[in-house]
Every structure is written in C-alpha cells, then in structure tokens.
Amino acid sequence: MIARWQRWFVVVWCLTALGWTTFAAQHSVGWLVGGWAVLVGGHALVLAAEFVASALVNRREEGPHASASDLLRAWWAECLLSPRIWAWRQPFRSTALPDHFPATDGRRGVVLIHGFSCNRGFWLPWLQRLTSQGRYVVAVDLEPPLGSLDGFVQTVDEAIRQVRTATGLPPMVVAHSMGGLVARAWWCRTRGAQPVHRIVTLGTPHAGTWTARIGRAASSLEMRIGSPWLAALAHAQQGCEPARFTCWFSNCDNMVFPMHTATLPGADNRPAHGLAHVELAFDAAVMNGTLALLDED
Length: 297
Description:
The chain is α/β, with parallel strands linked by helices. It has helices at 2-24, 29-58, 68-92, 124-132, 153-167, 178-190, 218-222, 228-238, 284-292, and strands spanning 110-113, 137-139, 172-176, 198-202, 245-249, 268-271. Helix 5 (153-167) crosses helix 6 (178-190).
C-alpha cells in the first residue's frame, strides 16, 4: 500500500513539474526557476523546520548538544537521502531484493522492521549486504500503514518464527524508528515465547517523540510522549522475560526528539551523534556495529 501511495505521489509530482514548465515557459525565466525551486526544494524546507524544532527541544535536555555545523551537515545529508528512499526505493524497488533463504549453515538470521510511512524497500542496502554474506534475512511490510502498532505484532511474530525455524537459532531483530516499538510490543504481547538474540533499534521513540503530535494516524497517537499506549507497553515490559536491547540514538535526529526518548533504561544505549533520522539507519559505523552483534554470545 505504501508503495502504491508513493508511486502516485511521484506521478503527481512529475505531472505538476511538466504542467508548471509548460505554463512558466510562456511567461518568464523567473517564473520557471521559482516554480522548480519550490518543486525541488520544498522537502528541504520541511526538513529544515524539523531540524530547528529538534535543536530547540534538545536544548532543554542534557547534552551533548549538536552544534550549528552538525545540524547543517545532518540536514544536507537528509535532503540527499530522503528522495532516494521515498521517491525511488520504496515506491519502485520494494520487491527488487526478495527475502534471502539460503541453505542453513549454522549462522544466525536477521529480521528487519521498517518505520512509519515506509516499506521493506527502506532496507535495500541491508538486504544487499546480508544477502552477500549468505545470511537468512526477512524484511517485513507493516500493513495497513496507518494502523495501530499492535496490529503489526502478528506480522513480526511470523517473520521471527520463520527465521528461527529455518536456522535453528534465535534471530537478531533490527528495527528503525517506529519499527522498534513494534518489536517491543511483539516481545511483550508474546511474553518472549519466541527467543531472540538481540533487538537493535535505530532512532526508535521508546518514550515517544515530539513530532508525533502532528500526526493523526493511530500509530502517531500511540507514539506521542506520555501516551497511554507507551505507558501500557512500559508496564507490560516489566513483567516480561528480559530481552537484550541495543538502542542507537542521535542528537541530530530530526524526527525522534528529545534525544533521550530513543533510549531504554538498562539497554545498551549507543550514541550516534551528528546523524539525522534516516541517515542513522545507513551510517557505516552504525551498520557495522549492529552486524557485529550477530556473532556475539
């Protein structure tokens, strides 16, 4: 569903660009350039607003605080990366790399869980790397996109069971943003019936996020700071068998802030300061550090 929505968005954008070019060509170069500046740079302005909000909110918290140059670099990285995700990989390449089911070789498998407004196409670089390593890997699609987080638990449970049955080993779960909350909800709702090696979250709003107040989807309401859903999840997790969590977080995250909301008490909380929200999932150091956990006891 996300792929269809985003394909339509790209089509509408292209038709708008064509229509504006045709119209503006009859007027002046200024009209043409101005329109294209809005079409091409509009998402950069939205991202800039997110980074400003993140900086202001994080300033009220304990540091380390991002410098202006850190925020500018992270903003530019997100400007370049976001169109590749939402205008190419997810709408047109989500099925380009299938889940990888090699012959079992005694190595651990991986389950990948995407975040809000995403699909499995988000994970293409991870799928490429894990497939090249011969790892058993499944990347789920969370549907329907605007549904409650609890509605995704069954999808995650089926993927984890599949990987564990095939490899004979508890898999490692890697989740970006909202996907980390789905992983936690799965762990609590199933009460650890299916063991996992580790749950790694990348920029997950474990304690909610300021930006969720803007959304109106069921999952957005659940991701608001202080939401009843988050409170119930924290309470439920206290009664579950403990799971090993590794939580990556950043002081330049433009979607999950204040930055401490991406950490969990008692978890292996790892700073990746200077990285933007989407960038966090594809940073070489973060990816290498995460994949190194596969072979740890």
